[in-house]
Design goal:
- 20% of the residues lie in helices and 31% in strands.
- It has two domains: 97 residues, Arc Repressor Mutant, subunit A (Orthogonal Bundle); 124 residues, Umud Fragment, subunit A.
- The strands form two sheets. Strands 3, 4, 5, 6, 7, 8, 9, 10, 11 and 12 form a ten-stranded mixed β-sheet that branches. The chain has a two-stranded antiparallel ribbon with strand order 1-2.
- It is globular and about 55 Å long.
- The protein starts with a helix and ends with a strand.
- It is α+β, with helices and mostly antiparallel strands.
- About 13% of the residues have low confidence.
- α1 packs across α3 and α2 packs across α3.
- It catalyses: Hydrolysis of Ala-|-Gly bond in repressor LexA.
- Its EC number is 3.4.21.88.
- One of its GO terms (molecular function) is serine-type endopeptidase activity.
- It comes from Pseudooceanicola antarcticus.
- It is an enzyme of class 3 (hydrolase).
Length: 239
């Protein structure tokens, strides 16, 4: 059985991963649980890992994987949605096929896979040439994919998004869209020539492309020089 703080932290991590595709930082966890120091978060994380609810991935920034959810959280989600479709990284998939969803306490696994085109590499660093050719294909869990949307995959090159949990060599799953909210991680096409993976923020007449690594400066460009080609909805990592 989990303590209230352990349950609260697991629910917070799960909701943030479902919303953003990456786990929250320890500072965000500390603030959400109203703790005075990060040492308390470390103890809660260790307890959740020992009980088999999460897995920490070695040598990865902010890399936490949810392995299973307790029955209480599963029941809570089932009561507020059309059907619980658990996922490690959310692509906004509709909660359909409720009969196929895992039962309480079971590992969170994608039950269906779809083959996507891997459209070469995307720069998480200095922008590289725009991507237009299919390099390979990859099988992606259906829970990562938005219902009714088109998707593609890109291999990440560089480390500018490492603090968002995106590392060199990862494969990101992108939902095709020309729009994005401030703070979304997007594929941005710069001057119709360079593609890069960054957080996007809009100002009056300009756009900021923001890295998740303090070693990289924010790029501010005229709004008409940047075109959104997709939004990050998932990530696949090989070891």
């Amino acid at each position: 059985m989990l303590t209230k703080k352990q349950l609260d932290l697991l629910e917070f991590i799960h909701k943030r991963m479902a919303r953003d595709g990456v786990p929250p930082s320890f500072d965000e966890m500390k603030e959400a649980l109203d703790l005075r120091s990060k040492s308390g978060i470390h103890r809660l994380i260790t307890a959740l890992e020992e009980r088999g609810f999460i897995r920490r991935l070695a040598h990865r920034a902010r890399a936490i994987e949810i392995v299973k959810l307790p029955d209480s959280l599963l029941a809570k989600e089932a009561a507020t949605s059309r059907g619980f479709r658990p996922r490690v990284i959310d692509g906004g998939a509709d909660a359909s096929a409720a009969a196929d969803r895992p039962s309480g306490g079971q590992p969170l696994e994608a039950l269906h896979a779809q083959e996507l085109q891997v459209m070469g590499k995307i720069a998480a660093g200095v922008p590289i040439e725009a991507i237009s050719e299919v390099a390979s294909h990859i099988a992606v869990p259906g829970s990562m994919l938005s219902r009714g949307g088109d998707h593609y995959a890109l291999e990440v090159s560089g480390d500018s998004m490492i603090e968002a949990g995106i590392n060199d060599g990862d494969v990101v799953i992108i939902r095709e869209t020309a729009t994005a909210d401030d703070g979304d991680i997007v594929v941005a096409l710069v001057e119709e020539q360079e593609a890069t993976l960054k957080k996007i923020y809009r100002k009056s007449g300009s756009i900021d492309l923001v890295a998740a690594n303090p070693a990289y400066a924010t790029r501010t460009l005229p709004a008409d020089k940047v075109r959104v080609q997709g939004r990050l909805v998932g990530l696949i990592r090989s070891y």
